Amino acid sequence: MARPAMNQVDYADVQGLLRFGYKHMTQARYALLRIKNAAAARAWLRTAPVSNAMLMNPPPTTALQVAFTAPGLRALGVAESVIAGFSHAFRGGMTQENRARELGDVADNAPEYWHWGGPANEVHLVVMFFADPQAFDAFVQASTGDVWNEAFAEAQWLHTENLDGVEPFGFADGISQPQLDWESQQQAAHIRYDYSNVVALGEFLLGYCNEYGKLTDRPLLDPDAANTDLLPALDAPAKKDLGRNGTYLVMRQLEQDVRAFWQFVHRQAGGNEAEAQMLAAAMVGRTRAGDALVPVQQQPIPGTGTNPEQIRQNQFTFDHDPSGARCPFGAHVRRANPRNTDFPGRPTSLLKKLITVLGFGPQGFRDDLMSSVRFHRILRRGREYGCELKPEDALAPAPPDDPRRGLHFICLNANIARQFEFIQNAWMASSKFSGLTGETDPLLGNHQPVPGCPVTSVFTVQRDNALRQRVTGLPQFVMVRGGAYFFLPSLRALRYIARAGDQ
Amino acid sequence: MTPQTQFMILAPIMPAREAELRQLLASMNHAPGRVNPDNTLIPFAQFDTLHVARLLILDDQTTADVGVHGLPVPAYPLYFALLGDIDGNENAFLQELARRAAVGLSMLFSCCEGFTSTADLVAWMKRHRSPAIANYVNCRGRTLWQVREEAALRDALENYLTRHASALEKMPPREIHAQLAAFIKEETAISRLMLSAEEPTPLGWWIKDTLHLIGLPVLLLLALPLLIVAAPFYLLRLRQLEKTDPALYPSVDQAWSDALALGEDHDVTNQFSAMGSLKPGLLRLLTTLGVLLTVNYAARHLVRPGRLGRIRSIHFARWVFIGGAKPWALVKTARRAAFFSNYDGSVESYMDDFINKAGFGLNASFSNAIGYPRTNWLVLDGCADECKYKEYLRRHTLPTQVWYKAYPGLTAIDLERNTRIRCGLESASMSNEEISAWLALL
Ligand code: HEM
To answer: Which UniProt keywords are listed (chain B) (predicted)?
Structure first.
């Protein structure tokens, strides 16, 4: 099996987005493309300046990343038997009827209305451009010459806006991210009793051990002339690992109705500004500045960092808020990352552990309700779009030409079904999260009725020793406008793909 | 207490009538995965004691797997199954079923071998019973009637709290409790709400249950010397098998997995049906029997209400040997088992929950099936090989043509909450802490 030496990640083989958010390159644009001419597309891919994950000094001023959908791989000529090695979610795609239902992409959010990625406007690949503002146009121009034009039918350019780390509703974003265990130092544990922010590399990069201590399924090929360049599989050295150093990229265009959000919150607060801010923070689970709503703990949490800001923002779990009175159970960040462990409490003896395992442990209503979060983390890499609208300006009615704004949500994960889809389905879109009922994520929820639950548009603010407050009639603040599952290949796999149909 | 019972009717389908049967089953749904509770074949909604029910064709795709053990592939008939979980006595339910759905049942069963239109429905169903070897009920004694009453109670409270929110939000917990208790008392007095008292436990059931409670440990005690002597040999052989038994997990066919998914995630609860063949040899058979009898015993006498180990999302579950419940039949003929459950959430969360919270039980009960990911000491590893386990499970999952649940929109946790709310309301003496915990349920 894998030994540390083999585990060493070859950063030159990994697309940089996994390691860097490219924050300092404040301008970004995503080209969603369809392949017009496969040979030309392969030719373009062979020369594309795809950035890797090596640290560079001075840091680069431009970066380019490429990822493919399953139909895209097919269009490029990748064999069906190879594609069959990718996950069901990737192959089936985000718009499959059952997936759409699980993700909450129904009614107005249904793929048939999407601007891209829907049944009528399927995309094959995304090319992501990042650069300093001064360098941006020249970079895009240089990368998209004649071959590009011959190769691709441009489906859409997604523009982004630099809002300085604040998402369109006005909250600091990108504060909590898992820390990747690049050196695979953390022992794969059967049970973890403490919340850790360090997550197995295999959760984010195919070809390495995941939190189960296993390698996630991906295409393994019998060696042949076309794939000599690929790395061997750690768990099957005789096979070539097409997935190794690659991962899946989930992309969703989430349009945010910033005016509806702040107007609703103000109405609920009866126009009281402070109360409106409090309610908005309760819905998000952080203040606008990004501070947690629960007190930070003394004990460090592995992988949250050591500088005072990191501690202030992330050295917390919800253990000290079992009633939800500080941060409501239904708040966006509490749903997105409940910061729990594999086990309710730390058993002091083997007997105590056995008692809990057999179901005779604590019998409180909310005890041990949730799945363990370490199997359900994502690495977020999204960017905002549309011009900024300050919360205080959002109270004014929309002008007729109000521009659209929102989040090009992007996340990376090695197992779409267990990570992105699970979070979106079991935690965000679920009307039953954590013993709640009648409410879904206050930011993301489509608030559509589900059978037997006509109302899912509530938001509950728990209180200690007092009746909870119910906010009712939440409108839908976020509309899904597009989306797809992509494979973000390693550079070796990219070269393989770029030659796939040439033989 | 009214105990819950399960029933299952299993009959081979006449090959020429399979298509017709599939059509009949489809006609019971509004759309795939969405049953019509008032469908004309079996109008489920008319039954006041029926919690969940399903009708399916046991279309096992994995019968050829026995080949990896060098065995010939048996020619099994294709079975049709009708099963459900009910309050009270099976006999009474089957009578009612035959009364309310005589025409529909006759149409369905006429697609099966050995059914004639003149047959006595109840007698025929009884002849085709296929009892479970192990059975789990989320909360023994909670009747459908109670579920409905308590759901109505919660709705009434929710409405009341909405109407009086501004006053109640400032009130101390004990006063809120008193006020709500008074409100509910009024509502029940004018019969706008019903909160029926528990029915007495049927004596026959109680005697049987007690005998079962005592019987199994006594038998075990008697067999103990033998077991101790056999244990080393058993373990040796088990370890040998665990190391050599072929593991088998071809990737699930995408079309199969799509077909399964089409019927899932319409309600907050889902059905799960799976089937597979047992590994050959006496050891695997005895292990399966031992494990399932233990599970059954624990589920019946030991587990806390609402919890199967750490898992709180299962309403009902059962393990059944397909093609004969009699152990001696198993040695020769029927070496296939099926598992049926009703669980909250999506199949992905269900599978993860099992791996992380009850992996040992999963391994013990399923590792005797052909192709299961390699276990160690019966309970270790196995399903922790996540991807392989999930592929394995999906490949063994059966599409369930018709699935009914009497309380769409309510999870097992919802039922527990509603019961806790009611108990708190009916309780006259609660500590401050208890009152606070109770208030947090609202
Ligand atoms: C327009 C849509 C969205 C908005 C406005 C939004 C906003 C936010 C904000 C303000 C935070 C707190 C900052 C932080 O902890 O980094 C956050 C955290 C987070 N969000 Fe979202 N989000 C959106 C969509 C999503 C989606 C679709 C998912 C995944 C399915 C998601 C998953 C997360 C996660 C995992 C965190 C970090 C939680 C933690 O680790 O504590 N978000 N989001």
So the answer is: Membrane, Oxidoreductase, Peroxidase, Transmembrane, Transmembrane helix
